[in-house]
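Structure tokens please, single chain.
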Amino acid sequence: MIKIDELTALCDGDDSVLNMLLNLYIEEYGQSDSIIKQRYNTEDIDGLFQITHELKGMFSNLCAQDAVSLAQIVESSSQTGCIPDETAINNLCDEIRNINQQIQALLQ
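Here you go.
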């Protein structure tokens, strides 16, 4: 989950910056759990590496350290040319859905 207090502090308490960052995430990565599942199911290792690498950076920007760690696990596996463990994929996708719900609640 996003540590809202930390993220708000990084945005200097500016709600417009915070909202812009959250909207950017939703636009760019809001469907990433589905993309990850599809790439996992088709054994698209390079695609998994690409999206998890991008997500790792985005989650870091959002102060979502647990999600960074989960993305790192999948990224590391795919970087070595291996299909990540299904549990790692499921954990990351679950965390993405939780973050999406958290962001939707914040943007209302």
